[in-house]
Amino acid sequence: MVLFHSGNFRNLKHFYLFYVKPHLKSEFPETVSYNRFVELQQKAVVPMALFLKICCLGKCTGISFIDSTPLRSCHIKREKQHKTFKGMAAKGQCSIGWFFGFKLHLIINDKGEILDFMLTQGNVDDREPLKNDNFHKKIIGKLYGDKGYIGKDLFEKLFVDGVHLVTKIRKNMKNSLMHTYDKVMLKKRSIIETVNDELKNMCQIEHTRHRSFDNFLSNLLSGLIAYSFFPKKPP
Fold first, then answer.
1. Looking at the domain assignment, is residue 233 inside a domain?
2. If we measure between CA atoms, which residue out of 6, 126, 39, 121 comes closest to residue 73?
3. Which InterPro entries match (predicted)?
């Protein structure tokens, strides 16, 4: 599953039937049918989650970036017809419009390594995950985010925990003095947009063909693991 996200294949069934079975017999001598393989994916969710949390996350360098990206379950016009994630996915809004699905919240360091992640419904506010101590307990120093993370209470809570949240200000807010270093680093925040782009287009963590929530999780986790093994990340 991790190997699928590391290559140029776009279809899991084609990858399994026409690459794994004929060309990887030495690594996987006893392959099962594709339908059985899809069923067995669900058993790999917990081991992959543990492996990702323990072995694949990076270390905080004192400079971190945070952002959320939508994971669409289907087209927004078909939200009421969608059955696979009924009761789990939700309608939300991001910078490019409305969507139906989930949100992936990411924190990365200045080397492009993922420090932590959290999956929520699409209608969850971007600031909610940061209120969870477990999400930012590995973070120290500066944390740069967009305008969606503005909040006095959140800033004070993180500051007490040793995290300095830095964001841009909205047009209707009073201007405040900011260190030149922070202004420069805010312009470098696009690094996390590049990480989101690689996760979606190279690791394929987002598609609308899932048949169960467990397989959606296994696809997401294996994509994040595959990204951690990329030799070159956006720094």
1. no
2. 121
3. Tnp_DDE_dom (IPR025668)
| Domain annotation covers residue 46 | yes
The total number of structural domains that make up the chain: 1
Q: How far apart are CA 48 and CA 54, in angstroms?
A: 10
Q: Does residue 199 belong to any structural domain of this protein?
A: yes
CA dist 135 and 148 (Å) reads 17
Rounded distance, CA 140 to CA 159, Å?
10
Cα pseudo-dihedral 43, 101, 187, 117, rounded to 10 = -30
Print the domain residue range for 160: 2-228
For the stretch 54-100, pLDDT in tens is 999 999 999 999 999 999 998 888 888 888 898 899 999 888 889 99
Phi and psi angles of residue 170, each rounded to the nearest 5 degrees, phi first: -80, 165
Cross-strand pairs, 136: none
Question: What pTM did the predictor assign?
Answer: 0.90
User: What would the two tokens of residue 37 be?
Assistant: 């393989």
